[in-house]
Amino acid sequence: MSTPFRNLKESFRGASRKQGTAVRDLHEWLAGNSAALAATKPEAEFNGTMMQGFHWYLPADGQHWNRLASEAPALAKAGITGIWFPPATKAMGGINDVGYGIYDLFDLGEFVQGATPNPNGERRTKYGSKDEYVAAVRACKKAGIQVYADVVFNHKMGAEFEEEFQAIPYDPADRNRPLGDARTIKAYTGFDFPDRNGRYSTMKWRWEHFGSVDYNSLDPGYQAVWRMKENDFEDQVDIEKGNYDYLMGCDLEVDHPVVRGELKHWGKWMLQIAPIDGFRLDAIKHIESDFFNDWLDEMEASVGRDLFCVGEYWTPRIETLSWYIGHTGGRLNLFDAPLQNNFHQASKSGGNYNMGRILDGTLMKEFPMHAVTLVENHDTQPLQALEAPVEPWFKPLAYAIILLRAEGYPCIFHADYYGADYTGKGRDGIEYHISLSSHRWILDRLLLARMHFAHGPQYSYIDHFNTIGWTRLGTEQHPHAMAVLLSDGPDGTKWMEVGRKDTEFTDITGHVGGTIRSNGDGWAEFRCNGGSVSVWVEKHPELVNLLEELERA
């Protein structure tokens, strides 16, 4: 990280901590410093690319950590610089749980425990054992890839026993409306982790460590969110449903000093057992936003270095994401949910989407320094809770946007790179077979273009209903120019400036044959096929070698 950029970020963090500072003031700070933020780049030019290293329906064979380890060298060579690992901790569903039904943070596939014990007494999670997890992290690091651990702090599930306590029922659709007075309820809130038996942590979780639950076994038919009498709903959360503090399971009370201390202890423990480089934070719209400033400060202090942190605040509302960035003092990056939604809508529109507005209302456009851009993830893939898939024909266009433009930190989805084939139930209860095609061929070419050509000044031509494009003019370290053109409708052409006079360009994707020569002013009329993308790069001897090496891979 360059010194000017570090100073700007520290200035933002300092402003956010001043007592009485309004979120609006932080937004104004961002607006006033956006040009400076965009201009501060590391001295060594580097285009990082993250991969989400899993999808929801991976086989539960316990081999995923081993697969990630074995794939690491090839992924690094292709241009992947960071991998977001799935939750490594033991979850309620045992070896079949993706990891978000969190049970024991300190069990990474080491103990025989959980609400759904493994049939043969296996200790592993869906992905493998603790030792295999650590080995996979180290293999990625050896290949030059950063690793980001998935953190699930919102809830716990799969308690060993029930407890009785006083709670107030609230309307699940409006958490500001109580349905009655406090009463005694009984719920599964007791966690002892018997097989772990105090190793790594001696804390035993009880009802007072949680803020709310959604089930009362003394009155199982009564539909309510039961808030513990002693605790309030957190107020720095999303306002959907009046207050979206409660999501599922036993909701953690992060204001409780014992809970907060335990989550800090776990984070430092994770940083000790494996050389991870940061965290992906799950479901942050349901967790008090101030908590993560405190937590991340302590994590970075414990290792004496900066840690990358991206949060999942899933909403299409840019105003809400803007509020969160301001309220957390710019500490966290956020997934660009509005951009993913734009891609979904465009892919469904059959050429009737205004591509000139594809970046409107997105973090990529409004807060590029905090945007982790994506096309798909495990929640938006077919049959999942936030199902909003991007149609296959549009994915190369969408990936060109996130990989070849200057803004944001792009994230490639595992199923888009490797493909996926699975069966599962939809929201209608019907079982479907889903086959997702691998886009590895085009993604490898876009990654090649990102590494070698997506550098320097960017000129945008996002000014047409169907056909949009941009150019990158290169730098001293990466001196070759690039022009990207895509259309969601008919064949497209566009005059764009590339800053190279009388220079030949070739389409690295191979979608359009032949070459295009720029004129004496450094402009050329580039073209693309309908419903397709073309990436025109300077034709030079090194390019031939790069493409030949890619074909061999």
TrEMBL record:
Active site as annotated: D282 (nucleophile), E312 (proton donor)
Source organism per UniProt: Luteolibacter luteus
Enzyme class: hydrolase
Protein name per its UniProtKB record: Alpha-amylase
Keywords in alphabetical order: Calcium, Carbohydrate metabolism, Glycosidase, Hydrolase, Metal-binding
SMART domains per UniProt: Aamy
Domain Glycosyl hydrolase family 13 catalytic, first and last residues per copy: 48-450
Gene Ontology molecular function: any one: calcium ion binding
Binding residue positions for Ca(2+) 1: N154, D245, D251, H286
Protein family: Belongs to the glycosyl hydrolase 13 family.
Keyword Secreted among UniProt keywords: no
Binding site for Ca(2+) 3: G351, D488
InterPro entries per record: A-amylase_thermo, GH, GH13_cat_dom, Glyco_hydro_b
Cofactor: Ca(2+)
Pfam family, one: Alpha-amylase
EC annotation from Swiss-Prot or TrEMBL: 3.2.1.1
One GO term (biological process): carbohydrate metabolic process
